[in-house]
């Protein structure tokens, strides 16, 4: 077995083995040495995306059963999964002749439709059950549907393995030239030759920690973003490190990290990097000292101008205080005047009242005296 065949067999993920899905993905047969007459390599990244999309769509439909009392039976899950599988197979068959169209797009649209229809059916079913006005037989029919749908082991139905296998089958059926290789061969020599150079052959990322598998044609895309890829420091310090550590390194410990002089505040605008700082500090001592003196002078001038402003403000405060005092005494005098006029008015009122009382008393005495002498 040459190197390329070794790469091929070690690169096909074991997770892609599917127990009950037919037909067996041809790519796996090829790995097993079966000459199927044509290349069945597919776009690995696309297959993973499609598999994930299938899992998500299925889970979305199953969300209708989120109420514990409505939890579906295993048979329900199985049945729903089979429905989806059948629907996707039909879609793939329909998409097959149209090789210019991306089959995955067609499958995705079909899945979306299925999800929206399925969700509608299930929610109509549950709302009918909850409504008291529904007729008995309708409810019984819905109930029967639910009873037939079963239960619990989600993972056994739409496991990653199952959805990966389904995705590969779909790509094999409807694959356009963009997502699936369809090269044919006459003998095993042609097969070996093609397999070693097929642009769809699976390839494991060269970074040992990554382990991501992509088709060879997509490797440059992955390589340009792989977080584990080792790169030389972009600031040129010479260190080799993983892409995902680059940013942190460049902004923290990298000796080539751009920094400002600690005396920037004094006005030193020297362009420095971490490793040249020490050197700069020892060679630019005079410059820094001179900048400090200039800054002190500037600050002195500023303090003087502040002092002057403060004096002006104090003058304003004092003159305002004086004004207020004067206004205050004018008001006090006016109030005193009003009070004295009130006082005299009260005393004049009280003497009038006294005179009136005396007059009433005199009148009383006069009446009493007249009564006594019998005039009344
Ligand atoms: Zn091929
Ligand atoms: Zn990688
Ligand atoms: Zn560096
Ligand atoms: Zn400096």
UniProtKB/TrEMBL annotation:
PROSITE patterns: ZF_TRAF. A zinc finger (TRAF-type) spans 222-278. Coiled coil: none annotated. GO terms for molecular function: zinc ion binding. Pfam families: zf-TRAF. The keyword Metal-binding applies. It comes from the Eukaryota. Residues 222-278 form the TRAF-type domain. Keywords: Metal-binding, Zinc, Zinc-finger. This is TRAF-type domain-containing protein.
